[in-house]
Design a protein that fits this description.
Blueprint (H helix, E strand, L loop, with lengths): L6 H4 L13 E4 L9 E6 L3 E8 L2 E6 L10 H8 L5 E10 L7 H5 L8 E12 L2 E2 L5 H11 L6 E3 L2 E2 L3 H10 L4 E6 L9 E9 L2 E13 L8 E8 L2 E8 L5 H11 L3 E2 L23 E6 L4 E6 L1 E2 L5 E2 L2 E6 L48 E5 L2 E5 L5 E3 L4 E2 H19 L2 E3 L1 E3 L9 E3 L11 E7 L4 E8 L2 H9 L20 E7 L5 H17 L5 E4 L5 E6 L6 H18 L4 E2 L11 E4 L26 E2 L18 H8 L13 H9 L4
Parallel strand pairs: 1-11, 6-8, 33-34
Antiparallel strand pairs: 2-9, 2-10, 3-4, 3-5, 5-6, 6-7, 10-11, 12-13, 12-16, 12-17, 13-14, 15-16, 17-20, 18-19, 21-22, 23-24, 25-29, 26-27, 28-29, 30-32, 30-34, 31-32, 31-35
Helix pairs in contact: 7-8, 10-12
């Protein structure tokens, strides 16, 4: 089709519109199978428009409210696009199958709540030209050429199939419905057009919360929400809804509607909100709380009764992008058979990208509550700067530990922890805490030990899962310091550690010593694994798998460092007393003792640069390696790319007694 010149597209062509009211679809009762129509999935999310020109980017709701902060991952992804456009689409949260989850979207606060996707289905303006008066198929064609896709921003696929066939697929997949669009339709803002049609697999209605009831002697905060819609500019009661909301949702709903509490019923006449029914002939006594009609919800239902109320309604979530005064009853139009005929060429659904573990805490709220492993953890003072020279915050630290939790947990689970707390960052007061008796929640596991010094029992904190890991971090524990043994076998370490602790040495000398240890262990067929300390030295681990005592581990370490010191006496020392080392590198084997700790693999360190104790491949342990190579800003990408290369440390333990017999008779 030859593109026509439309006067509207030439008016103020260089001015990008900033407040487009989106074009809307008309609800019909059945899918059509007509020539000249294209079909899309109806995404169950929030309608959004993106305006990008130069460095300016705005992500707005259909009512022109900013989504910049609320859906910051989408905003950041759009910010990276090197195009100037106005895009129309839908923001959703996808589940593991790539299907929309409106409940998850409604409660979304950070990337831990689910994978966001912005499905773009229209292009309204491009490089200084308003193209709303182009036919849809031409706008879609240009969109496919100019919009690079990623896991967060995707083109909503159009399907070249019969409408009835796509609708059947949507029903089987549990999707909200489909949209049919005339391929020659122009974009008409703020109009509910019959050139765009929507067909829902589940009957849904937007409704205004006008009050709620609470049954006598009920533990629930909300027994039923009282709902309304506008008909001829008059607020009409459409019934109560008492299912579909969890305890958490009830709390969130009350928080949202609290500013609008009123003693006056918003309806012209007080409705029968608690009347008997066939299934509830004697309803319990209920108190009613009225609310000004300002907050909008989404409900599912089966049918509409003759009195206009909904049968079997279910609450689905709150809607933030709809003005209450615009909420009207939306019943489907009937479409006749003459409007149905064939299309061709079946295409399959395109799933979004894999779900990713990104941030736990959003970048805005200074205090946030997140449910981890069934426990509500409150994270406060999130904007506090922990690394002042690097402008890294407590929020950044917690998000880091959330992202690397699957990798660090195997190395710290079931191990007592020495808490090294920096509540005001690395330049503030800091202290060690071993005994947490009476100072942690009941769900935190502890390990009892007897202190000879204090003549009483104390309790170490034990990390059991992601929740306890993040709880420890929330206390200001920048680094994670586990024992080498588990609580199930506290006297038998999982590894032997050699800690290379330089004094006046160069880091190249540290690397030289590490390579010498690797060479020695290779000669006696003992595997070894290296990581940066995150401070000044390197840590070398040898797997033991809990087969030996701490004493065995320590003496094996002693045998190793004696040989290395003999090989490199000019800059190494095995003297425990600092004054006796003469500024040489300490080959520390005494970390192999009960209750001794070093920073875990993947742990952050309270050092300039927000460095990480990073596992290394041995071929990386060479001149040019720097401690600053691994920090909070780049570590996650490396860890996710390589996986846990330190995991073999927890594998089959070596025979250190046989190895020690060789070392005791070692001759260079």
């Amino acid at each position: 089709m030859k593109k026509k010149s439309h006067p509207e597209s030439q008016i103020n062509a260089n001015e990008m519109p900033l407040d487009v009211k989106p074009m809307l679809a008309t609800l019909i009762d059945k899918p059509i199978d007509a020539e000249g129509w294209i079909y899309e999935v109806k995404w169950d999310g929030f309608r959004a428009l993106s305006y990008k020109r130069g460095e300016m980017l705005e992500l707005r709701s259909r009512n022109n409210k900013s989504f910049n902060e609320k859906f910051y991952p989408v905003y950041n992804a759009l910010k990276q696009l090197d195009i100037e456009v106005v895009l129309d689409g839908e923001i959703i949260v996808v589940n593991k199958d790539g299907h929309p989850d409106f409940a998850a979207l409604q409660s979304w606060r950070s990337e831990a709540d689910g994978q966001l996707v912005f499905y773009v289905f229209d292009l309204l303006w491009h490089n200084g030209q308003n193209i709303m008066q182009w036919p849809l198929k031409e706008r879609r064609n240009l969109l496919s050429k100019v919009l690079p896709e990623n896991n967060l921003v995707k083109i909503s696929q159009s399907f070249n199939v019969k409408g009835s066939e796509l609708f059947s697929m949507a029903e089987k997949m549990g999707l909200e419905g489909i949209v049919a669009k005339n391929e020659n339709s122009l974009y008409t803002p703020d109009v509910r057009s019959k050139d765009w049609l929507k067909i829902k697999t589940i009957k849904q209605q937007e409704a205004i919360i006008c009050g709620y009831t609470r049954n006598e002697d009920s533990s629930r905060k909300i027994s039923a929400l009282l709902l309304g819609v506008y008909q001829n500019n008059v607020l009409q009661f459409i019934g109560p809804v008492g299912t579909g909301f969890t305890d958490k949702m009830q709390t969130e709903i009350i928080e949202r509607i609290q500013p609008f509490f009123t003693k006056t019923c918003p309806f012209k006449e007080v409705p029968e909100y608690n009347k008997p029914s066939r299934f509830r002939p004697n309803p319990p006594k209920a108190d009613v709380f009225w609310v000004k009609p300002e907050i909008v919800a989404k409900i599912n239902y089966r049918t509409v009764a003759s009195d206009g109320t909904f049968r079997h309604p279910t609450f689905k979530g709150l809607i933030e992008d709809k003005v209450a005064s615009e909420v009207k009853m939306e019943l489907p139009l009937e479409i006749g058979k003459q409007e149905r005929s064939a299309l061709s060429d079946h295409q399959s659904f395109a799933k979004p990208g894999e779900l990713e573990r990104n941030s736990l805490l959003n970048p805005t709220n200074d205090s946030q509550v997140r449910n981890i492993n069934g426990h509500d953890l409150k994270f406060g003072h999130l904007s506090k700067i922990y690394w002042p020279d690097d402008q890294v915050s407590k929020r950044d630290m917690l998000n880091y530990y959330y992202q690397v939790a699957p990798y660090i947990l195997p190395h710290v689970v079931n191990k007592p922890q020495t808490l090294y707390r920096f509540p005001n960052g690395i330049k503030g007061l800091h202290f060690y805490q071993k005994d947490v008796t009476g100072k942690v929640p009941d769900w935190i596991e502890t390990y009892a030990y007897y202190s000879d010094e204090d003549e009483r029992e104390k309790h170490f904190l034990v990390i059991k899962d992601e929740a306890s890991l993040l709880y420890v971090a929330s206390l200001g524990c920048i680094e994670i310091n586990p024992w080498s043994s588990k609580i199930t076998s506290p006297n038998n370490p999982d590894w032997c550690i050699l800690d290379l602790d330089p004094d006046k040495n160069t880091f190249e000398q540290v690397i030289q010593v590490a390579r010498a240890i690797k060479n020695l262990l290779d000669q006696i067929n003992v595997p070894s694994y290296c990581k940066t300390s995150g401070s000044t030295g390197l840590h070398i681990y040898i797997p033991l798998n809990g087969k030996y005592t701490y004493e065995d581990s320590k003496e094996f370490g002693r045998s190793l460092v004696k040989i290395i010191h003999h090989q490199l006496p000019e800059f190494t020392s095995i003297e425990r007393i600092v004054a006796n080392r003469s500024g040489k590198m300490y080959l520390d084997f005494l970390q192999n003792r009960p209750q001794a700790t070093v920073a875990a693999a993947y742990s952050l360190r309270p050092k300039p640069g927000a460095t990480v104790s990073m596992p290394l491949h041995w071929d990386e342990v060479k001149p040019g390696l720097k401690m600053s190579d691994f920090n909070i800003k780049n570590a996650v990408n490396r860890i996710q790319r390589l996986g846990d290369i330190f995991l073999p440390v927890l594998g089959k333990g070596v025979d250190i007694k046989a190895a020690k017999r060789i070392l005791d008779n070692w001759k260079d």
